[in-house]
Write a structure and sequence with these properties.
single chain, alpha+beta, Nucleoside Triphosphate Pyrophosphohydrolase, 4-stranded mixed β-sheet, 3-stranded antiparallel β-sheet, 7 strands, 40% strand, globular, NUDIX_hydrolase-like_dom_sf, Nudix_hydrolase
């Protein structure tokens, strides 16, 4: 498959707490306004993925993170999203920036929340579902 150069580069962060729950945010803006997703956003000019991930996680969740390995990539509309493992270094979970809410979610929570399209299927493919 050839890679499209016209896609908007974005990052997402997969952070888990000690109980194995995944950090999700409820999106405040389109695409997916009102739906739950992993935190993240656009890579701004002059940023690499790691810098964008640290900034987006702080802005949307209140947490300071250390980016880890690339878990996977997806294309959703005009966005090419690179999702990375994150280690939480500090802070307290609080919705900010364009997030309406932020919380740690178990597998049971995922089944009950309105999620962005294909989130569960993608996480399952990557072996990244919460407990």
């Amino acid at each position: 498959m050839t890679e499209r150069n016209d896609l908007i580069a974005c990052v997402g962060g997969l952070a888990y707490d000690d109980a194995g729950r995944l950090l999700l945010i409820r999106r405040g803006n389109e695409p997916g306004r009102g739906l739950w997703s992993v935190p993240g956003g656009r890579v701004e000019a002059g940023e690499d993925d790691a810098a964008a991930l640290v900034r987006e996680m702080r802005e949307e969740t209140g947490l300071d993170v250390a980016p880890g390995r690339l878990i996977g990539r997806v294309t959703r509309g005009p966005y090419r999203i690179s999702d990375y493992a994150c280690t939480v270094l500090g802070g307290a979970v609080a919705a900010g920036d364009d997030a309406l809410d932020a919380r740690w979610c178990s597998a049971a929570d995922l089944a009950a929340l309105p999620l962005v399209d294909e989130l569960v299927e993608t996480l399952a493919t990557w072996g990244a579902l919460p407990r």
